[in-house]
Amino acid sequence: MTDTQFESSGKADGAGGAGGAGRARRLLHGWSANLVQMVLGLTQQLLLIPAFLHVWTGDMLAAWLAIYAAGSLVVVADAGLQLRAINRFLAFKSCADCDGRTASFYSALRRIYLAIVGGFGVLLCVAVVLAPPSVVLGFQATPTFDAAMLVMILGMLLTLPSNLVSGLYRVRGRYGRTVWLQNAALLLGQIAQLAALAMFGSLLAVAIAFVSMQILLAVFLTAFDAPRWFPFLRRAGKPPFVSPSLRWSLGQFRRALPFAVANITELALVNVPVLLVSALVTNRVAVAQWGLTRVIASLVRSLCLQVTLPLAAELGHDHATGDRERLRRLYAHGSVFVTALACLTVAGLLPFWPDFFALWTHGSIPYDAPLTVTLLLGSAAVAPSLLALVFANHSNRGDLLIRTKGLQLVVFLALSIVLIPRLGPLGAALAVVASDILVQFGLLALMVMRQTLNHPFRHIAILVLMGGAIVASGWLIGQAIIALVPGSGVLHFVLECAIWLVAVGLLASPLLNTALRERLRALIPA
């Protein structure tokens, strides 16, 4: 409990002190947990597919993917309440009775979550009876589809209250712990899915196997783990039978609205382009090109978001406790780190993605170079704004979020309607990238940087120069390897990637010198 108590006190030592060591440990713990979570997510969505196809037909697999997607969208029912809770927990750090006020708010908001689960659960059951999902989505011939859809959505809905616990862990320096527990549940869920597939082979059995592990995790976090780490939760400010007033409850939804808009916009930027391209483009090959190419751009964005989440928890702590100097340094260094990671990833993908795409699709889908370059370069360009976005979520900038993310959604939809009929998938890519750069970077990120850093424009200039140098260097190294090592096939692709990693590693090896790293960090404008 030393980290938790240290965080609650609002004190922050320098980078070289105990606080700096604790912060570095928490960040590394969080990043490693998020990296494993990304790998498990890819395993669920990519590597389990051959196992499913070994037992199921293509129609059954399509049905499962629809069920899985529906379960993933249940997060929208949170309505921004998790981020609302995180901001309140952070604000309590400057109060005299931090633990008591945290416990009282936690108890009241938990009742709201339970009401959401109960209300949506009833509506879901009624909707399944009145409009069976198999009829709506065209899976009438697929056995147990309706039951599996109901189990998946209802099961994920039951896990919703654990969002409140995850928010508390994030604020109190235990972010890595909750993600590692989620990783364990994902891994056990994947094993359970394979067992259910082998034993029963039905959609319902696989859906039960998946959600059961998520529900067990939610129960463990809420009922056992959180009270053990935070004993003050047992002494909530109100008696258990007293519910929060309707006016107070509605007020929480109103204050959570900006965070809900921001999250819905992020989901829309990932999922809506697929629907728009499918609806507005008649060439089915082009639609397939878009769907497959968008996967890699989404992966870069997800990687950056996963890296920023542990940073956001630390930035939110510094903002809540008024430690502006530490906040400024961490934001500047974090911004450079996220940008460098995104640009390095894009630099490796640009030269070798055509070879991987050919192997992945067995040459059945042609490679679209302009589409790939647009999406990947756009992912690198928007990387600094992702840290600004998550920091805005953790510093209670509701007005800024609802204005900028709402505007971004409008700009994206307007550009999509204009560009997709004329340019096809490239128009969708331009719409996504333009809305990111013009609104999320040009408005949201710029305003957050101006409020946080002393030299925001010098910082942006450094990011542009560094990002351009990394992408250009990585791409040129890749082109040289392609020219010097001709060939094709899986082994050739692996060899190319290995040579590129070695070359980039040698180029970056001077950064292993601690003195050089410190000198470079001192040059970062903050």
Could you please describe the fold and organization of this structure?
By secondary structure, this protein is mainly α. The chain has 19 helices and no strands. Helix 2 runs antiparallel to helix 12, helix 3 (58-72) runs parallel beside helix 7 (145-158) and helix 12 (284-321) packs antiparallel against helix 13 (324-361). It is globular, with a radius of gyration of 24 Å. The model is unreliable at 1-18 (pLDDT under 50).
Any key phrases for this structure?
O-antigen/teichoic acid export membrane protein; membrane; 526 residues; globular
**What is the tally of helical segments?**
19
Q: Over the alpha carbons, how many angstroms does the gyration radius reach?
A: 24 Å
The major pleated sheet works out as: none
The percentage helix is over 70%
CA distance, first residue to last residue:
32 Å
The SSE string, one letter per element, is: HHHHHHHHHHHHHHHHHHH
Residue runs with pLDDT of under 50 for 5 or more positions:
1-18
Strand segment tally: 0
**Percent range for β-strand residues:** under 5%
SSE inventory with pairings:
Layout: H1 2-9, H2 18-55, H3 58-72, H4 81-91, H5 98-130, H6 133-137, H7 145-158, H8 162-171, H9 175-199, H10 203-229, H11 246-280, H12 284-321, H13 324-361, H14 369-393, H15 398-423, H16 425-452, H17 456-484, H18 490-508, H19 514-523
Helix pairs in contact: 2-9, 2-12, 3-7, 4-5, 4-8, 4-11, 5-7, 7-10, 8-9, 8-10, 9-10, 11-12, 11-15, 11-16, 12-13, 12-14, 13-14, 13-17, 13-18, 14-16, 15-16, 17-18
Transmembrane segments: 35-56, 62-81, 112-135, 147-168, 204-224, 256-281, 330-353, 373-393, 400-420, 426-448, 460-484, 490-512
InterPro entries: Poly_Biosynth_Transport
Protein name: O-antigen/teichoic acid export membrane protein
